[in-house]
Design a protein that fits this description.
Blueprint: H1 2-5, H2 10-19, H3 23-30, E1 35-36, E2 43-46, H4 47-58, H5 61-68, E3 74-75, H6 82-86, H7 88-99
Parallel strand pairs: 2-3
Antiparallel strand pairs: 1-2
Helix pairs in contact: 4-5
Bound molecules: zinc ion.
Length: 100
């Protein structure tokens, strides 16, 4: 099922993602790994469960992780999108706003 939509090897996946980074959101939706950021409500893909889901398909989870981490929709956090997670200033601003 997964292999119908995702390319069979990582090089092909990289080419697709280079052309269309948003493809990652579709792929993540398929394996139920799509998250919504708790701060800005942007859709994003938490990298750990996503890599785990794709591991049966690609086997090489380290290379997969390295390939995905540069995608703008990937986040190292499971609760916050990459933009909020990478920007502590923004995070503080949101937390202050919530307290007001
Ligand atoms: Zn966010």
């Amino acid at each position: 099922m997964l292999s119908l939509i995702l390319p069979p090897d990582l090089d092909a996946l990289r080419i697709i993602l280079d052309e269309d980074p948003e493809f990652l959101l579709d792929a993540a939706a398929m394996v139920n790994c799509l998250g919504t950021c708790r701060l800005c409500e942007r859709r994003f893909v938490p990298v750990a469960p996503f890599v785990e889901s794709l591991e049966p398909l690609y086997g090489d989870s380290r290379r997969l992780h390295a390939l995905l981490r540069h995608n703008q929709y990937i986040s190292l956090s499971e609760a916050l999108c990459g933009f909020c997670h990478a920007d502590p200033g923004l995070l503080n601003m949101f937390q202050k706003m919530k307290k007001l």
